[in-house]
Design a protein that fits this description.
With about 500 residues, the chain is of the alpha+beta class. It folds into 3 domains: about 5-80, Uridine Diphospho-n-acetylenolpyruvylglucosamine Reductase, domain 2 (2-Layer Sandwich), CATH 3.30.43.10; about 85-215, Uridine Diphospho-n-acetylenolpyruvylglucosamine Reductase, domain 3 (2-Layer Sandwich), CATH 3.30.465; about 220-470, 3-Layer(aba) Sandwich (Vanillyl-alcohol Oxidase, Chain A, domain 3). It has helices at about 40-50, 100-115, 125-130, 140-145, 180-185, 235-250, 290-300, 320-325, 350-360, 410-425, 465-470, 470-480, and strands at about 5, 30-35, 55-60, 75-80, 85-90, 95, 150-160, 165-170, 195-200, 220-230, 265-270, 275-285, 310-315, 335-345, 370-375, 395-405. Strand 11 (about 265-270) and strand 12 form a beta hairpin. The chain binds flavin-adenine dinucleotide (FAD).
Amino acid sequence: MTEPLLIRPDDARYWGLISGSNTRWVGSPDYIRLVWSTEQVVAALQQAVDDDLRVVVRSGGHCDEDFTANGKVRAVIDVSGMDTVHYDSVMGAFAVAPGATLGRVYSTLYKGWGVTLPGGTCPTVGAGGHVAGGGYGALSRLHGLIVDHLYAVEVVVVDADGRARAVVATREPDDPHRDLWWAHTGAGGGNFGIVTRYWFRSPEAVGDDPARLLPTPPAELIVSDISWSWDELDEAGFTRLVTNFGEWHERHAGPDADHLSLYSQLKIQHRSAGSFRMSTQIDAAEPDAEHTLDAFLAAVGAGTGATYTVNDRSRVPWFYAVREWFGFVEAAVARWKVKSAYMRRALPAPQLDALYRQLTREDYPHPYAMVALVSYGGRINAVATDATAAAQRDSILKLMYVTLWTDPAEDERHDRWIRECFDAVYATTGGVPVPGEATDGCFINYADADLADPAHNSSGIPWHRLYFKDNYPALQAAKAKWDPREVFSHNLSIRPA
Ligand SMILES: Cc1cc2nc3c(=O)[nH]c(=O)nc-3n(C[C@H](O)[C@H](O)[C@H](O)COP(=O)(O)OP(=O)(O)OC[C@H]3O[C@@H](n4cnc5c(N)ncnc54)[C@H](O)[C@@H]3O)c2cc1C
């Protein structure tokens, strides 16, 4: 077994390990400890607790906020080297270590057994944070969230007496630790302890043939990438287009709706980009797949007065599409800020009106500012709201607001735009998408610390209700039980009951 490594500031590697992907967050810990096994995590966590150091864990490093890289953090436990994916015949489930990237997870499951998990689209995201946050992706309309297939979790927790130990918790109804499993189905990372292993097996799976325990991905996809020129869209055309996209999803939202394999991202970049794209995929084996895709494209474009340009239309192996992820926009991605919203129906008129104004602002001509509308619903909506910590189970779309840049001197300018944009779109509900008729709160994997700041959330609805709705009290109880000393905390961490 590889020995743990202790990296301090006098080690050149320190400077490469004090931030994650979002380089606007840079920590100044006393050390980073690289570990390769559960035993090493127990020892590393014990040391940090004994030394009374604020400790965090990092897996894939894709956190949007500063949770693992801020001035208060004194010790970082980096589990990115724990990245194995294998079939565990004792558990009867696939074991995924937290440092495994989604690309590695998909590749190993596909090559070994022809199965997959309905997780995120970015292959460099780490399982560690992604799964705990209730990750979703291109197969989620067909197969639900990644946590809907989570069978068990191994977590290194710290007891009330300060002792670190590993606990395995499963979804079995008679498991006395079931609450710890449940707490890892959508509360977000950095809350209860350090996950050292996830195990996956679909709830409806029977038998012990690994090739039948998780979803089978499509063999081939038909993929489409089209773009609209802003020059061809006036406000009425824009409004029609976004409404059409929402209404198609309203018609195809339920667990038994048609065309659950159709997944689309409408990525509306700021007008200064000149155009914006919509990327769509559908299972090529779906009856009439070509026609369904054409009908979808026609439905979204209907009545807009604009014609779209076809950038790509091809039939590709699913495994090709899952590997070759081109990102949301073609930009250098060094610094960013995100926000999110769940939609229960197509965007209401006041939200559309504000969105149009914000994306066409002349005082912020930034091509890499974007609001993406992403397909949701389907089998995600087959699961009860309290069955997992991921509470939003009747939405049709997920919205991601994002702005990307590289120059640190521009942080304030970009933060200002995204805040003003969000504030304007949700002006009638205190500047946030409160659970209600049209919206249903926010997604913890797109972490946004502004929600906990009254300057940016005047709704009277606390941040935890936006993320977890009625599941928050049970998460608080799990926090009190499993992290009684609040060893793990960040701006959006669960507070004990
Ligand atoms: C480019 C990009 C694309 C994305 N695409 C998607 C997508 O398609 N779908 C989706 O659902 N999300 C997506 N996300 C969001 C992503 O799922 C979250 O940011 C996730 O938390 C990242 O996990 P990580 O391990 O890579 O990050 P990290 O920065 O390592 O961790 C994130 C948080 O989880 C905690 N954590 C990490 N490891 C552990 C562990 N082992 N045990 C306990 N807590 C842990 C950290 O302390 C931190 O609080 C995307 C993010 C980016 C940047």
